[in-house]
Design brief:
This protein is α/β, with parallel strands linked by helices. The protein has 2 domains: 3-137 and 255-298, 3-Layer(aba) Sandwich (Rossmann fold), CATH 3.40.50.450; 140-251, Phosphofructokinase domain (Rossmann fold, 3-Layer(aba) Sandwich). Helix content is 43%, strand content 18%. It has 11 helices and 11 strands. It has a 7-stranded mixed β-sheet, sandwiched between helices. 49% of the residues are buried. The chain binds 6-O-phosphono-beta-D-fructofuranose. The site of 6-O-phosphono-beta-D-fructofuranose (F6P) has 10 residues, from loops. 6-O-phosphono-beta-D-fructofuranose (F6P) is lined by residues 70, 100, 124-126, 168-170, 221, 251.
């Protein structure tokens, strides 16, 4: 294999993964190009050469220095064919895709429909890649949100208030559950579980009778809007509420050590897998060992063990 390309999405740890891919490939004398702006850049043929030196000083940076996009054009046959032409023109023999569900779906299309050797590296704060225990970016996102919740608790306790904190996750309750458990939060609303606001309000009122004076409720953005939840709680219980919507701060920032280490490991392993002529795979780690998962499996909806985590959250905050 003489030349490979890297396509990325953004989250903390992606730059560390790019660095690892580039430096591992350089060790094998494989030329590397970065695709600018994700799949849109592939359609437009926007490549930049990457050398050992061009990835220095990025291991600690959030986002992706290659920039990214949510490409609508790559979803079309016309866009895909244009992208494949560019790949062939550039004599690119393999591609490493670093990203979440959408990015890996694109990788699977390239590998199966166009027979281009592709290996995926899971990087998403939602941690929703099937068969993958931990995706790059998820640990940083949870820690960023947790830091905010810890600070919010100071005011919640001092003023005896109910806080509703909205975290990211349109279809995934991963961040919400992790933060609720780690932050000792009293309630968590997330896409994978039904909930009734009436039951929650009754619980708040009963808790209040027993002397519980402050609450932190985590809401995953895909389940409900924090402002709506707050309004209903105040209306039904009469208690004062406050809202914090954390948003994209969770996807950015300096990657944690966990994310940098995972990114360095998976980036290097992905190059080895691609070089061994393996394709249509996603790399991951299980029990301290490298594994590969077919991309067809990785892009399926992930089944979290949400019930057990939720039960524990409730048990510990009763
Ligand atoms: O998939 C990662 C994620 O950050 C989700 O948690 C969130 O719902 C979504 O992306 C936000 O997407 P965008 O940045 O396009 O608004």
């Amino acid at each position: 294999m003489k030349k490979i390309a890297i396509i990325t999405r953004d989250c903390a740890g992606v730059n560390a993964a790019i660095r690892s891919v580039v430096r591992t490939a350089c060790g094998y004398n494989i030329e590397v190009v970065g695709v600018l702006k994700g799949y849109d850049g592939l359609v437009d043929g926007k490549f930049i050469p990457l050398s050992r030196g061009s990835v220095s000083g990025i291991i600690n940076l959030g986002g992706t220095f290659l920039k990214t996009s949510r490409s609508k054009r790559f979803l079309t046959d016309v866009g895909q064919k244009q992208a494949v032409n560019n790949i062939q023109e550039q004599k690119i023999e393999g591609i490493i895709v670093i990203g979440g569900n959408g990015s890996l779906k694109g990788a699977h299309v390239l590998a199966t429909k166009y027979k281009i050797p592709v290996v995926g590296i899971p990087a998403t704060i939602d941690n929703d890649i099937s068969g993958v225990d931990l995706s790059i970016g998820a640990d940083t996102a949870v820690n960023v949100a947790l830091d905010a919740v810890d600070k919010i608790r100071d005011t919640a306790t001092s003023l005896e208030r109910i806080f509703i904190v909205e975290v990211m996750g349109r279809e995934s309750g991963y961040i919400a559950l992790q933060v609720a458990l780690a932050g000792g939060c009293e309630e968590v609303l997330f896409p994978e579980k039904k909930f009734t606001i009436e039951a929650m309000c009754t619980e708040i009122q009963q808790g209040n009778v027993k002397g519980k004076s402050s609450w932190i409720i985590i809401v995953a953005e895909g389940k409900a809007k924090a402002h709506d939840v707050a309004r209903i709680i105040t209306k039904k219980t009469g208690f004062e509420t406050r809202v914090a919507v954390l948003g994209h701060i969770q996807r950015g920032g300096h990657p944690t050590a966990v994310d940098r280490i995972l990114a360095s490991q998976l980036g290097s392993y992905a190059v080895k897998v691609l070089r061994d002529d393996q394709t249509d795979l996603c790399v991951s780690m299980k029990n301290d060992k490298f594994i590969t998962i077919p991309l067809s499996v990785a892009i399926q909806p992930k089944r979290f063990k949400v019930a057990e985590t939720y039960k524990l959250i409730k048990l510990l905050t009763k």
